[in-house]
């Protein structure tokens, strides 16, 4: 019996293998077939990971948006690696599979845009990372590291190609970000290019200007309706990260607004402050000096803890926003990259930021009338950078990246003598799992054995 079954199994397998190409063609034409449904599901799963790019305590510490009230050691910049494996093993491999196994242009394009967005986030945290040889599964478990410069070049090209691939009238199923509005995906893709271009302002200003104008001309976000925002739901399976940390038992009142952030907002009656943090028992707004040791933290009712609106179960997560675009245009005008009015873009950026965070522009005129806020051409770059920083509240990794690029705000503190990190260091597992490529990447960027928090990235010029 075995002698009969084994040859039959082999023949059946070989026959299936020979016919797999035509079978795949047939199944791709069947809208009810499993492989057809897999690409939308893979893309949607990758979208579900997007809040993690913002909702990270470490990101808030690196930007010094939040000061920790308990278990403060992890906010004081201890040395130690941070793994990027989850990004490769989760959203990135899902997106690559969607690209490889879909035959629908809009699906492929959106997967490519999201893949580029994730990689931009990755390289701006760690520096050189596996890129061109990554996501090959069993074909390559030890990918080489690409330089950050090469990654940026590839991402610009990939985003341009993905935007061109989109059929605006074609729609996209399972789209939890833009509900199938392909014109918004085009504007998002071009906006990411615009913001990436600004990141090169110090290392390669000529290319930065060129890429910025290319993205601007191709069409970027036009209003807060275009914001790339992840909207949580008032249910356990789709709730905001901070709700699970702060509200659900055990209740953790571990995060207060930093003293520096409150110091930037309170003196000018910033309308966003009551959204960002809760008033103290006395009705005041008081921040905690970043990095304060636990035995020196005052009573919690004397501090402005993270605001109820920010840690609500259905609180949205803002990832890329129209106000960011306006701040970028203000800076570009100040750098003479574009023939626009820097002051007007700056004013509109603050106005749109207030609209985003408070739902209204009430009080904007009074707020903007403060001398510290009104546009001052002699202090424009600091104003733009500082107001952008405030706007980026709770998107810690992006706020941290902009701080590293611009140096503003210029009053960051150094807990226990530890400066704000310049990068995240590679996890020790990578030194074991991908030793040769890991060592080459560290040596190339920082010198042998210098996988620390204080190696400068390619675009982070002193």
UniProtKB/TrEMBL annotation:
Pfam families: SusD-like_2. InterPro entries: SusD-like_2, TPR-like_helical_dom_sf. This is Starch-binding associating with outer membrane.
């Amino acid at each position: 019996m075995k002698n009969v079954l084994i040859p039959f199994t082999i023949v059946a397998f070989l026959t299936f293998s020979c016919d797999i190409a035509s079978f795949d063609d047939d199944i791709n034409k069947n809208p009810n077939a499993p492989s057809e449904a897999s690409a939308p599901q893979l893309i949607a799963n990758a979208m579900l990971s997007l809040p993690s790019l913002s909702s990270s305590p470490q990101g808030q510490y690196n930007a010094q948006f939040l000061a920790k009230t308990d278990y403060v050691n992890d906010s004081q910049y201890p040395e130690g690696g941070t793994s990027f494996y989850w990004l490769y093993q989760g959203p990135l491999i899902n997106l690559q599979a969607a690209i490889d196994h879909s035959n629908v242009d809009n699906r492929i394009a959106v997967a490519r845009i999201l893949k580029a967005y994730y990689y931009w986030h990755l390289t701006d945290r760690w520096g050189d990372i596996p890129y061109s040889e990554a996501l090959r599964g069993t074909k390559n478990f030890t990918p080489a590291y690409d330089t950050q410069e090469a990654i940026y070049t590839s991402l610009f090209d990939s985003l341009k190609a993905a935007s061109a691939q989109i059929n605006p009238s074609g729609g996209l199923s399972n789209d939890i970000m833009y509900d199938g509005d392909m014109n918004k995906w085009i504007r998002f893709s071009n906006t990411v290019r615009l913001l990436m271009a600004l990141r090169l302002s110090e290392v390669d200003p000529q290319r930065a200007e060129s890429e910025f104008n290319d993205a601007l001309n191709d069409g970027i976000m036009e209003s807060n309706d275009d914001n790339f925002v992840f909207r949580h739901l008032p249910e356990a399976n789709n709730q905001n990260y901070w709700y699970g940390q702060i509200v659900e038992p055990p209740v953790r009142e571990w995060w207060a607004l930093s003293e520096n952030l409150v110091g930037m907002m309170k003196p000018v009656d910033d309308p966003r402050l009551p959204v960002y943090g809760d008033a103290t028992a006395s009705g005041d707004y008081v921040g905690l000096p970043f990095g304060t040791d636990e035995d020196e933290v005052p009573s919690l009712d004397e501090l402005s803890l993270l605001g109820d609106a920010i840690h609500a179960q259905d609180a949205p997560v803002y990832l890329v926003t129209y106000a960011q675009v306006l701040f970028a245009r203000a800076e570009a005008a100040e750098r003479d990259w574009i023939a626009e009015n820097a002051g007007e873009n700056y004013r509109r950026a603050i106005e749109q930021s207030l609209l985003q965070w408070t739902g209204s522009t009430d009080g904007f005129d009074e707020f903007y009338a403060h001398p510290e806020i009104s546009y001052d051409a002699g202090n424009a770059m600091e104003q733009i950078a500082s107001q952008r920083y405030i706007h980026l509240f709770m998107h810690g990794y992006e706020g941290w990246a902009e701080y590293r690029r611009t140096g503003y705000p210029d009053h960051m503190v150094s807990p226990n003598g530890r400066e704000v990190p310049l990068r995240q260091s590679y996890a020790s597992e990578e030194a074991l799992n991908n030793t040769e490529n890991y060592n080459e990447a560290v040596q190339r960027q920082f010198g042998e054995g210098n996988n620390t928090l204080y190696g400068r990235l390619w675009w982070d010029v002193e």
